[in-house]
Amino acid sequence: MPFYEHVFVARQDISPQQVETLTADLTKVIEANGGQVKKAETWGLRNLAYKINKNRKGHYVLLNIDAPASLVTELERNVRLNEDIIRHLTVRVEALEEGPSAIMQVRPDRDRDRDRGRRGDRGERGGRWGEQEAEEISDE
How much is the pTM? Predict the structure, then answer.
């Protein structure tokens, strides 16, 4: 059977428990149609790139699915009928990722993210003229 990654975004005003219930309902639909959920990840409440149906945030959930192709149409039909889900995407993949997805992995600290220290006052940075030139101009 082919592998699929299904991501859906639920409305911002539902609780995390309701998101878990949505995930469980979709898992039941998948299993009833001969599929199997290999991994379910809840990414939490995140900002949307733009407003969708008056929502600025959404609960993101990823499902890794091993299922026949006919299941995708049934799954997407159920998702479209649910008013709590504002967006969804199902993509066929060659192999499912082992371990946490890229969103859930912790990024290492970057050099540019470290504290650069005190920048100092404008006089300490030299400004437009060096200190000698500034003294010569003031002497004249």
Answer: 0.70
